[in-house]
Write a structure and sequence with these properties.
binds adenosine-5-diphosphoribose; alpha/beta; binds zinc ion; single chain; 7-stranded mixed β-sheet
């Protein structure tokens, strides 16, 4: 059977998105058909629409989603219809060298659904990040579904599917923040603020928020930052050192993705501190550092891709923390909108007032 559903599609580069009827096939082997409950609007959807990821238009946008399993393919044993799930970008293979040594976040054989979703005229759709969840239903690989408790607000926990997980994971997985440590986060958008929430969850006692926008710094303080720095007004490296006994922070998380902020992170860390790059640079960006300064410090320089998360481990764990009141995911849901409002939500992103617009399908 083929399901006809409403969906948000980017038909061509830089054009406004449109609501289309799309055709979603029943799940084949290894696949799951999911009734979408909610899907957050992420910068990456905007990049797809602008042609910044690749040119495989038309794109079925949306990838930060939660839903209910509608049906599974013949050989799928880990899910049943009715399961509440959070979707992730790709299913891991379980067999490559990375998977075999317990580091599935580095799996190099990941996959998505094999069958294609299409427009009514048969044109194949490219689902954003292998998901495509601004739709009433979507088709994914069963391994992209992580089962979670269903007695929670889907709009809030669905955010774990992308940006919030990237930020929290940068702190708890990549940065390995420990109780009592000091953490500085440069850039307090959705990802940076999630990193602050992650640092708090991990027990950091000094959490320094750095941004060029006072509103972001204030928001960061309301979500766990103990100190705020406006880096337009103060040198952030000196300010972070001053707040950490002259040493620099144990962990500095860069959540902007620019050479100058990476350089600040590099110099604002403790002699044995860790720098985590979670902001995504563009291909033209370069940074020159005196090699002696690299040599003169211990610690580590790491990058964090999707928060080094293992969905099967991290999604249920973070949902539990949310339920217990240790992690305020509600604070990330700025507004609840419908599929018809996605284009407007893209425009709001630039105003800097919205952490997340979440579509309730
Ligand atoms: N110094 C400090 N903060 C800055 C600077 C700067 N030079 N330039 C921008 N910022 C702040 C912005 O004011 C904003 O609060 O960085 C924040 C970026 O936030 P968003 O645009 O909301 O981006 P976000 O979704 O948080 O993603 C951050 O991570 O996943 C990647 O591609 C994403 O590179 C991006 C980064
Ligand atoms: Zn995203
Ligand atoms: Zn693998």
């Amino acid at each position: 059977m083929v399901h006809k559903v409403r969906a948000v599609v980017a038909l061509e580069k830089n054009a406004p998105v449109s609501i289309e009827t799309i055709l979603v096939p029943d799940p084949g082997p290894g696949e799951a058909l999911v009734d979408i409950l909610t899907c957050g609007v992420c910068h990456t959807d905007l990049h797809y629409k602008q042609g910044g990821i690749n040119d495989d238009f038309p794109f079925l946008l949306g990838h930060e989603a939660t839903g209910v399993v509608n049906a599974v393919g013949p050989d799928v044993t880990n899910l049943v219809p009715g399961d509440r799930v959070i979707l992730n970008w790709r299913a891991v293979c379980g067999e490559c060298r990375a998977c075999q040594r317990g580091q599935a976040q580095y799996c190099f054989n990941t996959h998505n659904a094999t069958q294609k979703m299409t427009l009514e005229d048969g044109t194949e759709l490219s689902p954003a990040l292998g998901i495509g969840a601004f739709a009433e239903k979507t088709l994914v690989a069963a391994g992209q579904c992580t089962k979670v408790d269903d007695d929670v607000d889907p709009a809030a926990v669905g955010l774990l599917g992308c940006g919030v997980m990237a930020g929290i994971g940068a702190a708890i997985n990549t940065g390995e923040v420990k109780r009592g440590e000091s953490v500085a986060v440069i850039g307090c958008g959705g990802v940076g603020i999630a990193a602050i929430a992650g640092a708090k969850l991990a027990g950091a006692t000094t959490i320094i928020a750095v941004d060029i926008d006072d509103n972001k710094v204030e928001l960061a303080k309301s979500l766990g930052a103990t100190h705020g720095i406006n880096s337009k007004e103060q040198d952030p490296v000196e300010a972070i050192r001053a707040l950490t006994g002259g040493n620099g922070a144990d962990v500095v998380i860069e959540a902007v993705g620019r050479p100058e902020t990476y350089k600040q992170a590099f110099y604002a860390r403790d002699l044995a501190g860790r720098v985590v790059l979670v902001g995504v640079p563009t291909p033209d960006m370069k940074l020159e550092l005196p090699l002696l300064d690299v040599f003169g410090r211990g610690g580590s320089l790491k990058s964090s891709w999707y928060g080094d998360c293992l969905p099967s481990r991290d999604f249920p764990m973070l949902v539990s923390h949310y339920k217990q009141g240790n992690l305020d995911l509600d604070a990330f849901v700025t507004e609840r909108i419908t599929l018809d409002d996605v284009e407007a939500a893209f425009h709001k992103m630039h105003e800097g007032k919205v952490l997340r617009s979440v579509v309730e399908v």
